[in-house]
């Protein structure tokens, strides 16, 4: 397929266009309601807590309630491996992007470039575009992310050794628990006791029967899967409202004048995802790590997210370039809102052109 035809197909695809417009319009709605005063100054924080502690945890767990086969297992394990490899690469490479700055700026900006808001910003967008398959891959990808975020990033930002409290955050976080439990259940389902039940597709009986692991609640316990699904469906709209609300609470003037914040934002939402896209396409084409369109697109979108909230909190709490971090977080969030539809379109065009396998 010619690139021109691929572009036309992408921008006439209702699901792609609606996913892009939904993201942008709901973020703008949150921005408008915050500026108007309908949302108070702390409303964005409340929404964020709901999204992180409830909605995304339910979304992550539910994404593993699907069949496993050789193909999906292979894709999932590839994503898991890349989720560790890319953070190891970025830990060493990202600081080099700021080699002309002093050591403190180099370390802080390197960490902020490495760790994006994959959970809060990335997963809702991935879920809206690629459905349960995308959420499955994004949840697996985030296993490595969270391990490095709560260990390496913490140690570098604080200059301290790992504390008990931070280890608790790493393993007792609702999203981490739901992801790890869901991943284990997904991997082990063929070895578990099986039951034959009426087959359900999106909660609706098909008239056929299916044999699944007893804990596949999407088939065996609709009464439990359905409320979790309702909670999961809150993740995207609430996250986008919170992003808009946050943008509406901050003045752009100081941040706009900071050249380093702009340079960082380019690295974070353009250079890092582009690096992932190119390397993964090469690895897939050479059959070193063959990944499908949904898997590669998920990684690219996850890596095109703005500053991670936790990484920014480390910098601000321990007075490591706090003002620069705040400015960078703001500019990268605005940049990500602008670039995300572009990345989605680019990925779709490449897929329509047959670039992915």
UniProtKB/TrEMBL annotation:
It comes from the Bacteria. InterPro entries: Mem_transp_PIN-like. Keywords: Cell membrane, Membrane, Transmembrane, Transmembrane helix, Transport. One of its GO terms (biological process) is transmembrane transport. The chain crosses the membrane at residues 15-34, 46-65, 77-98, 110-130, 136-155, 171-188, 230-250, 262-285, 291-316, 328-350. Signal peptide: none annotated. It is a multi-pass membrane protein. One of its GO terms (cellular component) is membrane. It is found in: Membrane. Pfam families: Mem_trans. Its main location: membrane. This is Auxin efflux carrier family permease.
């Amino acid at each position: 397929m010619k690139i021109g035809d691929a572009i036309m197909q992408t921008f006439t695809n209702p699901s792609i266009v609606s996913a892009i417009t939904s993201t942008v319009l709901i973020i703008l709605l949150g921005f408008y309601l915050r500026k108007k005063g309908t949302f108070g100054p702390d409303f964005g924080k409340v929404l964020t807590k709901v999204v992180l502690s409830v909605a995304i945890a339910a979304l992550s767990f539910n994404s593993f309630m699907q069949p496993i086969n050789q193909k999906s297992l292979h894709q999932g394990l590839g994503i898991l491996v890349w989720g560790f490899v890319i953070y190891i690469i970025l830990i060493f490479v990202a600081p080099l992007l700021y080699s002309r700055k002093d050591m403190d700026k180099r370390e802080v900006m390197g960490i902020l470039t490495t760790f994006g808001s994959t959970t809060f910003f990335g997963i809702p967008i991935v879920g809206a575009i690629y459905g349960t398959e995308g959420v499955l891959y994004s949840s697996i990808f985030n296993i490595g992310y969270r391990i490095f975020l709560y260990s390496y990033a913490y140690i570098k930002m604080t200059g301290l050794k790992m504390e008990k409290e931070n280890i608790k955050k790493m393993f007792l976080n609702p999203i981490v628990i739901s992801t790890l439990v869901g991943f284990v259940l997904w991997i082990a389902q063929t070895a578990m006791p099986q039951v034959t039940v009426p087959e359900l597709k999106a909660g609706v009986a098909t008239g056929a029967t299916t044999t699944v692991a007893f804990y596949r609640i999407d088939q065996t316990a609709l009464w439990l899967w359905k409320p979790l699904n309702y909670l999961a469906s809150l993740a995207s709209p609430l996250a986008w409202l919170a992003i808009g609300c946050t943008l509406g609470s901050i003045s752009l003037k100081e941040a706009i004048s900071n050249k380093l914040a702009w340079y960082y934002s380019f690295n974070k939402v353009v250079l890092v995802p582009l690096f992932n896209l190119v390397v993964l396409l090469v690895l897939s084409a050479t059959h070193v790590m063959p990944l499908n369109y949904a898997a590669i697109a998920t990684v690219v979108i996850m890596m095109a997210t703005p500053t991670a909230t936790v990484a920014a909190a480390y910098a601000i709490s321990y007075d490591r370039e706090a003002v620069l971090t705040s400015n960078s977080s703001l500019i990268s969030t605005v940049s990500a809102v602008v670039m995300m539809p572009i990345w989605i379109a680019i990925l779709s065009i490449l897929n329509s052109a047959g670039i992915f396998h």
